Amino acid sequence: MTIQKKLLVLVDGSERTTQTVNYVKNFMPVDEHARIVLFHVFSGMPEEYRELEQEPNCVNALHQFKNRKMEEKRKIRAYLEQAKENLIAGGFSERSIEVKFHSLENGVARDIINEARNGYSAVVLRRRGMGALKNIILGSVAVKLLQSLTFIPIIIVGQAPPVKKIVLAVDASPASMKAIEFVASLLGGLGYEVCVFHAIPGLGAINFDLSEINKREPAEVDMSDACLEAFKLKVARLFRDVKDRLMASGFESEKISEKI
Predict the structure, then answer these.
(1) 125: exposed, middle or buried (C-beta count within 10 Å: 0-12, 13-18, 19+)?
(2) 41-56, pLDDT tens digit by residue?
(3) Among 5, 112, 135, 241, which one is most buried in terms of CB atoms within 10 A?
(4) Does the predicted TM-score (pTM) go above 0.90?
(5) Domain that holds residue 78
(6) What is the rounded CA–CA span in Å between residue 38 and residue 86?
(7) Is the domain of 199 the same as that of 239?
(8) Is residue 146 exposed (0-12), middle (13-18) or buried (19+ Cβ within 10 Å)?
(9) Cβ proximity of 105 and 111 under 8 Å
(10) pLDDT tens figures, 119-164
(11) Among 161, 190, 222, where does a domain finish?
(12) Which stretch of DSSP H or E encloses residue 238?
């Protein structure tokens, strides 16, 4: 299954989103099918402020506020064009990059979610830290997106530059299969190493070596007589299926590892 390489990249004009654009430039494959949309939701003047325009005592304050918003708008538009030039310098064609300056309609998160429904293959947003939980994704908009963008992959960008190594956490769920298809479609044939990772709670209490079971053709196992062997067989089949999907998309066999 081929997934369209169209990324919705969320930008706000900060230094952190400069890092996001740089990450996309170094991570996203440059080809004729790639398309990147730089998307910004501009809040403008809140409705509560507009209601004060008829108040004589608020005229000067509102005028200053409008000027600040106009300057902010100018700076963000300039940043979006700079980000576009940065991507072009990285090898993307001008026609493959679109800038969308969106005026707030229903709320920042809701407007992003509505835009994400327009045929994108993934949404790219930055990680934002706060206090002792700086390594956790925080912020009301980010949390709302994580909760609501269940219909599309999310790429979360940190500060570290991209490397050609991927940890692909898998299980047998339909959502996991979609993640495998996305990674295969986006990065297959580009020389990436991938570690297929499956987590099993309480694994340390048992011997879970798949080396022997992977050497032979899996056979059916009676669950009542050998529950553990049947469980090993299930995981081995999962890994084999994932590896076959990755290799079919261009990943090299020797660059695919497995870990439990």
Answers:
(1) buried
(2) 987 655 445 555 556 6
(3) 112
(4) no
(5) 1-161
(6) 12
(7) yes
(8) middle
(9) yes
(10) 998 999 887 643 333 444 445 677 788 888 888 999 888 777 778 8
(11) 161
(12) helix 227-248
